[in-house]
Amino acid sequence: MDPERKRRLFEALVQMGFKEIEVGFPSASQPDYDFCRMLIEDDLIPDDVTIQVLVQCRAALVERTYEALQGAPRAVVHFYNSTSELQRRVVFNQERSGIIDIATSAAQLVKKLEKNAGDTQIHYEYSPESFTGTELDFAIEICEAVMDVIEPTSDRKLILNLPATVEMYTPNIYADVIESFHRTIRDRDKVILSLHPHNDRGTAVAAAEMGLMAGADRVEGTLFGNGERTGNVDLITMAMNMFTEGVDPKLDLTDIDALRRLAEYCNRLPVHPRHPYVGDLVYTAFSGSHQDAIKKGLDAIGADPEHWQVPYLPIDPKHVGRNYEAVIRVNSQSGKGGVAYIMKAEHGLDLPRRLQVEFSKSIQHITEDTGTEISPVALWDQFEATYLPEDAPIQLISHETTTGDKSSRITAQMLIDGAHATINGEGNGPIAAFVQGLSRELDLAFDVVDYSEHAVSAGSDATAVAYVEVKHPNGSVCWGVGRDESILNASLKGVISAVNRIR
């Protein structure tokens, strides 16, 4: 990661609310050293933020680390060495005593060099790396040996960090080990017990959560689980899990898409579309039954807006800066609920249930033929072509209506198959009168069996939409839709739309 990306990531972490930020490995990397110096010399570290630097338990590297920290207001010096049985045997060819000597020698050096740190407030963190492959009794022994050197107090605690450098067992076993360490380590009130889970088994978040319940105080992780191999624990997922349980994580996650874009830019790696809470598809339902349940849940929110209770959506997407527009998307698995939701959310049309069923069938044919999902724009194009075609064979030009005490009469000017026609009708209302006249003109018997209408917008420029279901003598039924600034005109156009489709 180049300095510009590092700086953007650091500033974002500060803005999110993180108070301890590991900024690099300055003794092992010149870019990390330079970045550490830039933060200090350019006064980029807020008063309530502490930077942390990583260093192996090697004298030359420890000395270089303190050079990088000169002038910092505060810093955590995080020193570590590997302690697992495998690495003792294969990598270091050392007995336990030799590994303890490596850790305590480094502890002595970091404490000695603190005297040359000027006004920098130094705090210490020690990690028995590969803790999950280390015998628990030895992990406690080496940590207590480091404590003997550092001499932590209740006011200046030592961070003991227990890395699951490689995940080696299930989260419940990990939690048992953490609890045993928590209960056994001496001077527990002088220790901050920290977790550092990796994700080799895909359970880093679960392990971290159970580790906290087992007695840990602190978790080290990354945004969206970036890190070596399968990555570190994802702090965003952890924070959002807390949020869903009613616990404030004290992090600003109100624009989670911006955080994702930043992480992708800085890490040059994509975040998976199904990554919890942030992926493109995590608030999206394609399944018809899911869509129907989500639609009904969103409709019910109006009665109890204080409590989020929507099936399949554990949080309100708006809490992380997302919206409902992409909650429901339509493919071949989708049913009427998904189609109806998009027509209402995107286009303001509240389709009657039987119209939902009718229209969704035509959409399913399209998605099955193409094998892809259909966009809201394409959905509208299909709806318009089906119910609101501009070149329909029957069109309304104008009409005059008179209403008496018991009946209404209508005279309408029409285009029927390209020819001008005048129709006259009488009925118990304008729509019934129009149906009578049009039926006689076309020599087509049909009945209106359902009708509804609503306004699409409010105010003087409101548009009305009417939905009309008609039935042919042969038993077939179909729907028509009409739109107009006039409710009556919209209704008449709805009748015409249905008749155009049933002829």
Automatic annotation (TrEMBL):
Family: Belongs to the alpha-IPM synthase/homocitrate synthase family. LeuA type 2 subfamily.
Catalytic activity, EC: 2.3.3.13
PANTHER family given in the database record: 2-ISOPROPYLMALATE SYNTHASE, PTHR46911
Reaction(s) catalysed by this chain's protein: 3-methyl-2-oxobutanoate + acetyl-CoA + H2O = (2S)-2-isopropylmalate + CoA + H(+)
Pathway of action: Amino-acid biosynthesis; L-leucine biosynthesis; L-leucine from 3-methyl-2-oxobutanoate: step 1/4
Residue span(s) of domain Pyruvate carboxyltransferase: 1-257
Keywords: Amino-acid biosynthesis, Branched-chain amino acid biosynthesis, Leucine biosynthesis, Metal-binding, Transferase
InterPro entries: 2-isopropylmalate_synth_dimer, AIPM/Hcit_synth_CS, Aldolase_TIM, IPM_Synthase, LeuA-like_post-cat, LeuA_allosteric_dom_sf, LeuA_N_DRE-TIM, PYR_CT
GO molecular function: 2-isopropylmalate synthase activity; metal ion binding
Organism of origin: freshwater metagenome
Protein name listed in UniProt: 2-isopropylmalate synthase
Entry-linked Pfam families: HMGL-like, IPMS_D2, LeuA_dimer
Enzyme type, top EC level: transferase
GO BP annotation list: L-leucine biosynthetic process
